[in-house]
Design goal:
Blueprint (H helix, E strand, L loop, with lengths): L1 E2 L3 H15 L23 H15 L2 H14 L32 H14 L6 H15 L19 H7 L7 H10 L4 H8 L13 H10 L12 E2 L12 H7 L6 H4 L5 H12 L1 H16 L4 H5 L17
Parallel strand pairs: 1-2
Helix pairs in contact: 1-3, 1-7, 1-8, 1-13, 2-4, 2-5, 3-5, 8-12, 10-12, 12-13
Length: 323
């Protein structure tokens, strides 16, 4: 079964990941990023991205989650450098076909549309990595989530890592210790993990689901379907799937997390305490989510940044004629 692309589902999921990511690389700094990076070269950049995201979320609210998920999967591999957007070629292996990403990541065309618009307005100025980071922030805002400042000035990488995508990104089937270790490896905390990863995990217990919820899931997730043929979807937060709020955490406390890794957030004292705090305090959750996303978005891998570029097409590294 495929898990539905509901905005909050991914917001809460990857919220945890973003925070762990924030301190992930010793060489990562945000000193080269500024709020007014495009003030002279492309002053309309934020307005253009915002208008494009308003249109795409209005047409389909699940597009918000698609863009946020892309941002998380980008930052968790090589830092926030747009590597996740690169297509495979005969001579280049990207990250899109890594098992953790394949048939999971969507929203690439949304970024393509924004890039095309910006190339008309400001040719070869705004990086795909910056576009994705701002678009993810706007996605959260447009479904009722919090605002945070996004610093700008990222370069697009000329490389991608299929191996790191598989190694670094949490998977739904991972146990809680494995998920925590992946966040800690990125320099993020357990609290950060709970904020970002929220909707990605399922709580513990012999029977974590209410009978009504379990019956609903059984009607969707038919056991005789082959995984490769199953396009069924289920909301990670069935209560308010298209609104950014803290109901995911309240669902967990009722034993109604969709994924096994969700419910396992209740199996350890540290993570259970955070779930309880976020379930009881929506404002506190919003504030922590915004802080964690800002941290994740500022992660720069110095090697890929210094050797980076501003791609003309987000799907391909720039090519120049050999002199």
């Amino acid at each position: 079964m495929a898990f539905s692309l509901y905005p909050k589902a991914y917001f809460l999921h990857y919220f945890i990941a973003s925070i762990f990511m924030a301190f992930s690389m010793a060489q990562v700094t945000s000193s080269s990023l500024t709020l007014d990076f495009y003030k002279d070269t492309c002053p309309m950049v934020l307005e253009i991205i915002r208008k494009e995201m308003e249109c795409t979320v209005l047409s389909d609210p699940s597009n918000a989650a698609k863009v946020l998920r892309l941002h998380f999967h980008d930052c968790f591999v090589q830092g926030c450098d747009g590597s996740v957007l690169l297509d495979d070629t005969i001579t280049f292996q990207g990250e899109k076909k890594a098992p953790v990403n394949k048939n999971s990541l969507k929203g690439f065309r949304i970024i393509d549309r924004i890039k095309k618009r910006l190339e008309t307005e400001c040719p070869e100025i705004v990086s795909c990595a910056d576009i994705l980071t701002v678009a993810a922030r706007d996605a959260v805002l447009l479904v009722g989530g919090p605002y945070w400042d996004v610093t700008l000035g990222r370069n697009d990488s000329k490389t991608a890592s299929y191996t790191l995508a598989e190694q670094n990104l949490p998977k739904p089937e991972n146990n809680l210790l494995s998920i925590i270790s992946k966040f800690l490896h990125q320099g993020l905390s357990i609290t950060d993990m709970d904020r970002i990863y929220g909707d990605f995990v399922e709580t513990a217990g012999s029977n974590p689901f209410s009978q009504q919820y379990l019956s609903t899931l059984r009607s969707i997730c038919l056991p005789d379907k082959e995984p490769s043929d199953d396009n069924s979807t289920a909301a990670l937060d069935y209560f308010s799937p298209y609104i950014f709020d803290n109901s995911y955490y309240r669902n967990l406390l009722r034993g109604e997390g969709l994924l096994e890794s969700d419910q396992k957030l209740l199996s350890r004292f540290e993570t259970r305490k955070i779930v309880e705090e976020f379930a009881a305090n929506a404002l506190g959750f919003f504030e922590q989510f915004a802080a964690s996303m800002a941290k994740m978005g500022s992660i720069i891998n110095q090697e890929t940044h210094e050797d980076g570029e501003v791609r003309i097409n987000c799907r391909f590294v720039n090519t120049y004629p050999t002199l």
